[in-house]
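Figure 2 data, in text form.
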Amino acid sequence: MKKAIVILLFIVSTAYYPTGTIQAGNQQPEWAVKAEEGDGGVEIELTVSNNTSDKMILEFPSSQFFDYIVKDHSGKEVYRYSDNKAFLQAIQRITLTSGEQKVWQSKWNHTSSGGQKIPPGEYMVEAFLQVKQVNGKPVGERIVETVKLTIEEQNPSFKNVKMVSSGNSYCVRGQAKVAAGGFFYTVEDGHNILIEETLVKVNKESPNWSDFEFSFELGSDKIAKNRPVLLNLYERDLEDGTVHHNYTVEVN
């Protein structure tokens, strides 16, 4: 009776998982994707890692190692990386030693597969690792990773603005396309001006984009706990003083 039970359990287990198929957690490569706004489009970084203690040989059916699609808020596909691309139809292999990773970089320029500009909004990037075998064994399930992406309305004067802080010091970097050789900034909390209007000079004037960097100090005693602190970048008309193209960043 015991022998019959053991045989039955073996049959059930082998029927549930195809023989020789790689299962999650068993020599499975780790797959990660990042998508961030960059200069002229979305910078997409795709990484496959071998976090096991053994060497890993990844086999692909062609020179297409990855694919990704971009979906809008309704789940509709608006862009696919592999559309209108040709790949070598020959087996490719990548060997990763323990702890090693392979990174690919790609850029999406905010257009659909048909070439139309897509509107600002919330999107999803769904990335696939096109591996078919790992160490000679077929991969059981397609390896996929998904990340959210927000495409904001494009400001004609400022883009790629990033802020980093260290204690009371804040450093702001970005790109500006402004007239009169510069722009202004203030820091406020909706009720009080914490840093008065300050001029930032740039190396190039519109229609050229110019890199900029500036820093400011803001003590914790000036920050109200119940109100957000905002950095405002803007151009000011030198004749009538009108503010143009305001760009707001929340201070961390």
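Caption note: The two ends are 68 Å apart (CA to CA).
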